[in-house]
Design brief:
Helix content is 45%, strand content 12%. It has 238 residues and is an alpha/beta fold. It has a 5-stranded parallel beta sheet with strand order 4-3-2-1-5, with helices on both faces. The chain is globular, with a radius of gyration of 31 Å.
């Protein structure tokens, strides 16, 4: 008891403790908010986020669980990719119980392999140019310029690196083919020089006579990049 009024010290100390705790929490929250606002954006922090272009949206036209992209630049690599694509289906089925629909596969035909993105009719008509663009590729049976797309045919066995796995077989199972637009134009230019037709006319004809499940892309090398940006595992086939 003091003169004047009674002072309840415990209550006062409790009030001051709560006030200090509140101030500390406010300060921590403010500091945390300030720190968060000071954090750089992913781009500022150096985390690359690729731009998306509608021209590449076809790569996302799948609900598959796994995505695989094969890059080929030679006649032989084009055949080897077909063989690997078949193996990818087989091993995922036997080892993981996955179906073809679970697997998205794209084979890119560019540079010397682009010639095999065209139908038998184009090989019958423009075989010389397609063969020249494919590194002077010859039919292993006849030792002559092919009169058809050998990767659409079966029966070659080990004479070709696809070992009887054809484009049509893989297309039916969902494999898609990206045919290089720059290589296609170069082929059209070669045909035009020999035939007297215009490049644009030949280019239009080639583009209308692709193998099953194929599309012309602006350039194979660009699609190599875009596919990886869209989540495809990449393999270069030589």
């Amino acid at each position: 008891m003091t003169h004047g009024r009674t002072v309840h010290a415990p209550a006062r100390r409790s009030f001051l403790s709560r006030l200090a705790a509140g101030a500390g929490a406010f300060g921590a929250a403010f500091a945390g908010s300030a720190a968060a606002s000071a954090q750089p954006s992913p781009a500022q922090a150096g985390h690359f986020v690729p731009a998306r272009h509608t021209e590449d949206d076809w790569l996302d036209e799948t609900t598959a669980k796994h995505r695989f992209f094969y890059d080929t630049m030679t006649a032989e690599a084009g055949g080897q990719a077909l063989f690997f694509a078949r193996n990818f289906f087989v091993a995922n089925a036997s080892g993981y119980n996955l179906t073809d629909a679970d697997l998205a596969q794209v084979i890119c035909l560019r540079h010397a392999s682009a010639s095999f993105g065209f139908s038998d009719a184009m090989w019958a008509k423009y075989g010389d140019a397609l063969s020249a663009r494919a590194g002077n590729f010859l039919d292993p049976r006849t030792k002559q310029v092919p009169t058809g797309n050998v990767y659409l045919a079966s029966g070659y066995g080990e004479a070709l690196r696809n070992v009887n796995v054809t484009i049509e077989q893989m297309a039916r199972r969902g494999v898609r083919f990206a045919v290089c637009g720059l290589s296609t134009r170069a082929t059209a230019q070669l045909i035009a020089q020999k035939s007297g037709a215009t490049v644009e006319v030949v280019l239009k004809e080639l583009s209308a006579n692709l193998v099953p499940n194929a599309r012309i892309v602006p350039a194979g090398i660009v699609t190599v990049s875009r596919a990886q940006e869209r989540g495809y595992t990449f393999a270069y086939i030589d």
